[in-house]
């Protein structure tokens, strides 16, 4: 029997392990732009200096848009059985970026544009070998 492992969905995307996980991004000190995932340079074509630094992004943001997957996504994603609709959020954070991620802890009928969401890190899906694939998600902040 093989041991179940935790696999990151990608390297260098978020602080892990961490009680308060944060996305890792690039901030350009010259023009002020942010980039996620992090980058080796600034991608603003008007920026001349391109002095970049690695930063972590705000954990909270506002729901800017969303969609709901009512059908199981294709492999390698292995949906829960029975399948439940998966809300996908586009969250605007104070740095001005819009981050896309699965929402959890809410039913599609309760989702409201503008609601505050918090970044969490957890299992996105279980792969065919039974490993948990770990990535970021968004959870509603209770008022
Ligand atoms: Zn720049």
List strands and helices in order, with pairings:
Elements: E1 6-8, E2 24-28, E3 34-35, E4 52-56, E5 60-69, E6 86-92, E7 98-103, E8 116-126, E9 132-140
Bound molecules: zinc ion.
How would you sum up this structure, described in words?
This protein is mainly beta and 143 residues long. The chain folds into two domains: 90 residues, OB fold (Dihydrolipoamide Acetyltransferase, E2P) (Beta Barrel); 34 residues. It has no helices and nine strands. Strands 5-6-7-9-8 form a five-stranded mixed β-barrel. A hairpin with a 5-residue loop joins strand 8 and strand 9. The chain is globular, with a radius of gyration of 17 Å. The termini are far apart. Zinc ion binds next to loops.
- What hetero molecules are in the model? zinc ion
Class from secondary-structure proportions: mainly beta
Taking all Cα atoms into account, the compactness measure Rg is: 17 Å
Low-confidence stretches: none
Just name the CATH architecture of the largest domain: Beta Barrel
Number of domains: 2
Strand content: 35-45%
Compute the separation of the termini in Å: 45 Å
Could you state the order of secondary-structure elements as H and E?
EEEEEEEEE
* CATH top-level class of the largest domain: Mainly Beta
Fraction of helical residues: under 10%
For the secondary structure, the number of strands is: 9
Tell me the number of helical segments per DSSP (H or I, 4 or more residues long): 0
Globular, elongated, flat, extended or rod-shaped: what is the shape? globular
Q: What is the CATH topology descriptor of the largest domain?
A: OB fold (Dihydrolipoamide Acetyltransferase, E2P)
Task: Summarize the main sheet.
Answer: 5 strands, mixed, barrel
Average pLDDT: 92
Strand order of the largest sheet: 5-6-7-9-8
